Amino acid sequence: MAIELVRECFKKWGRDEDVLEFNTSSATVELAAQALNVEPARIAKTLSFKSEDGAILVVAAGDAKIDNSKFKGQFGFKAKMLTPDEVHKFTGHAIGGVCPFGLKNRIPVYLDISLKRFQTVFPACGSSNSAIELTCQELEKYSMNEKWVDVCKSWGKGQ
């Protein structure tokens, strides 16, 4: 099970016991926010895109949307989401639990600056009912982030 791979990944930092599992689904930003009792923007959603080499992951705030022109400017290709089968093939995680940890294959991970406004964020942990609370610095370290990018829009409205 993917959550076990994620726990194994977190063992090297002594954080495997910090992985949270819920009795309800956390498969969407809204459901995760409800399960955690936090604002949806603090959910660190992992988006998976096709690339020339296979796939890339972009982790963004729950209230952010991909800006196609920023994405193409940053990566040099159009933002095209992976299919659910492709997501599982590349990451080893199913939709609803996709995260940048415990990946089946080495996939470039990028963190969007929309996350930086929070002290802590909550990415999924390989299942549709899991999460972990991390600082942006921890997320950067544990995800083996390539670099911070600015590829989103519509975040932080009214804050």
Q: What structural keywords apply?
A:
26% helix; alpha/beta; YbaK protein; 6-stranded mixed β-sheet; 5 helices; 159 residues; 24% strand; globular
Structure explained in plain terms:
The protein has 159 residues and is an alpha/beta fold. It has one domain: YbaK protein. Helices cover 26% and strands 24% of the residues. The chain is globular. The mean pLDDT is 95.
Shape: globular
Give the N-to-C terminal Cα separation. Answer: 38 Å
Task: Please identify the structural class as seen in this structure.
Answer: alpha/beta
Strand line-up in the sheet with most strands: 8-6-2-3-5-9
Question: How many strand segments?
Answer: 10
How many domain modules?
A: 1
- Measured by DSSP, the beta-strand proportion falls in 15-25%
Helix content: 25-40%
The overall pLDDT, averaged over residues, is: 95
DSSP helical segment count? 5
Q: Sheet bearing the most strands, described?
A: 6 strands, mixed
Low-confidence stretches: none
Which CATH-level-2 architecture? Alpha-Beta Complex
What's the short story on this structure?
The protein is α/β, with parallel strands linked by helices and 159 residues long. The protein has helices spanning 2-11, 29-36, 68-75, 84-91, 136-142, and strands at 20-21, 43-51, 54-61, 65-66, 109-112, 120-123, 130-131, 134-135, 147-149, 152-153.
